Amino acid sequence: MTEPSHGSPLPEDQHARGGQSGQPASAEAGTFALYGPRLQTELAELYSEMSRRHGAVAPVLLEGDVPAWLVLGYREVHYVTANPNLFGRDSRRWNQWPHIPPDWPLRPLLAFQESVLDAEGAEHRRRAGAINDALAGVDPFELRTHCERVADALIDVFAGSGEADLVPDYANQIPLTVMVRLVGLAESEGSSLMQDFFTMVSGGADAIGADARNRARMQRLLDLKREQPGSDVATRLISHQAGLSDKEIVEDLMGVMGAGQVPTSCWIGNTLRLMLTDDRFALTLSGGRRSVGQALNEVLWADTPTQNFPGRFAVRDTLLGGQHIKTGDLLILGLAAANNDPRVRPDAYTSADSGGNQAHLSFSHGEHRCPHAAQELAEVIAETAIEVLLDRLPDVTLAVAREALVWRASPWMRGLSALPVR
What we know:
By secondary structure, this protein is α+β, with helices and mostly antiparallel strands. Helices cover 47% and strands 9% of the residues. The chain is built from 16 helices and 10 strands.
């Protein structure tokens, strides 16, 4: 089969042949590739085009032309996540595994792991409860104080030079440094751990190696904390009444670190971009501007860090958004597209102001949504990082035109490659 153009529908004859090799059966009007340059430059247009062609559920090809469904509609994402008995999380159901090569770069994102992400029912509730309790043990006031110290130290490094790139120099560093301390890792692990998590979520050539290195780090941390307990997330998971095994804790620490680092750094960077490019957030003569909290919430609607999340797997044949979903089909949760679904947000493309509306799906929905304690910690980290920067450098401005900013080429995460400022 001829390789599709990135982000473009396959010709009809190519699509038909793809369907015979295991492609979702109802992908009759063309299939979009969920990879390539359009994810950087024409994301909103791409989702809109998918919706016009297919409606709320679109057939897509993942890297390597692996078939899946992208759930674009707000109501449909809500329905999928609210019905775990119909759309399960255990990836061993996937009907495409016989066709997946061992070195497929997205394997770390989809292969079954004994983690809370893949657990279901009572087992998921046991694991998720332990994680929420471990994270709830973090004092938010101490966390804010620590975030302020980390932010001040990072700003001290570049403030005197008059310029900085706020993605690698700031947005990436704060959640990394804070999360390393929260889980109990040594600071020396931070930089390489962060790079490996970004490699994993980007689906790069070394994604499998990056995944293995980070698991080894978590195992070393677990071994250390069994000998030297501390006031940290790892120790609280070890001692939790849920009685987690070593393998379970390693897997769940991977989830905590991955979810705490990459999405939070993108949330900070995307919010800084909004505040530096939107006049509503500019300082006025009286010194006022719209709040950081408003900007953070607006980004969750318009440029949510987790664009698409893999995924759910059909427990049986069903109908969703007019598409016939087969048992074992993979459904990707299109969180970004759902947040901008014109059926529930008719003004999404004419007004970016979301006010205090927090009904977005950026933290997902249902029993597998981001734990409440994790959401609170991420918000403290992001809000503190932005407030400290704007307090220390109130006259910071973009060093390039807004149109020159480049997004990461990832179908999963929405974040800037760089944010150069003066």
